[in-house]
Design a protein that fits this description.
- The chain is an alpha/beta fold.
- It folds into 2 domains: 136 residues, Response regulator (Rossmann fold); 80 residues.
- Helix content is 49%, strand content 12%.
- It is built from 9 helices and 7 strands.
- The strands form 2 sheets. The protein has a 5-stranded parallel beta sheet with strand order 2-1-3-6-7, sandwiched between helices. The protein has a two-stranded antiparallel sheet with strand order 4-5.
- Helix 1 packs antiparallel against helix 6 and helix 6 packs antiparallel against helix 7.
- It is globular and about 60 Å long.
- The two termini are 24 Å apart.
Length: 238
């Protein structure tokens, strides 16, 4: 994603655009969740760059230094907690390291790993997003004077949701068991939370239960795959 003109680096944050001049690296595998963050950054004045896995994030971080990093805890090639811990001890340290997830207990895990803040999924409210980011910044980086919280929700692109469903469908076609299926269940759970899709969330959550009953797990996997296909075939639902 292209950066905005470098002119913004010379401007100061304001009440209307409190993150002006910041560059945020978003480490997120879901296009739908990332689009929500893109819109919140846009409304807040920040630039955004995206990495969809740990490897890509480390490649980004080897060549430039963002103002803040938002890291999803469940990524295709490992845990975002590992990257949070790495960045917390790196010198010089990035000023704002923020974890994000929709899983129970994830906030405590992120803070214990070294995160400065946490964004709970679904990520939709601009004011809540700004509050979390600003709380991690030093006073000289925050806008002065009173600031009204923006109680507005963003609406991510439905095509990003469809792209996430295509990604999940491709993985389900290639795998029937193992770590990839565990990842797909976690991935779809996060997308379902962001899209407020309760049936998809329930099916993804059911698949994450212990694998003691193979026939039941197979039925749950088939149900989840069917829901993904339903959403790919029903544009009106997106």
């Amino acid at each position: 994603m292209d950066d905005l003109p470098a002119l913004t680096e010379t401007l100061s944050p304001s009440a209307a655009r409190p993150l002006l001049g910041m560059t945020v690296l978003v480490v997120e595998d879901s296009l739908y969740a990332c689009d929500a963050l893109r819109l919140m950054c846009l409304h807040s004045g920040a630039r955004i760059r995206r990495a969809d896995c740990l490897r890509s994030a480390r490649r980004h971080l080897s060549v430039y230094r963002p103002s803040a990093v938002i890291i999803d805890l469940g990524l295709p090639d490992g845990s975002g907690l590992d990257l949070i811990a790495e960045l917390d001890t790196a010198q010089p340290r990035i000023g704002s390291i923020i974890g994000t997830s929709g899983m129970d207990g994830a906030e405590v895990e992120a803070i214990n790993a070294g995160a400065d803040g946490f964004l709970a999924k679904p990520l939709l409210n601009i004011g809540a997003f700004q509050q979390v980011i600003l709380a991690t910044l030093p006073r000289d980086k925050q806008p002065g004077g009173p600031r009204a919280l923006r109680d507005e929700a963003v609406r991510p692109d439905p095509l990003a949701f469809r792209d996430d469903m295509i990604h999940a469908s491709n993985l389900l076609d290639l795998h029937e068991e193992g770590p990839v299926i565990d990842y797909v269940a976690q991935f779809l759970g996060g997308v379902a939370q962001a899209a407020d899709d309760a049936p998809l969330l329930d099916a993804a959550t059911a698949l994450t239960t212990p694998r003691r009953d193979a026939p039941a797990r197979g039925a749950r996997l088939a149900q989840l795959a069917g829901l993904v296909q339903d959403r790919l075939g029903n544009r009106a639902a997106m």
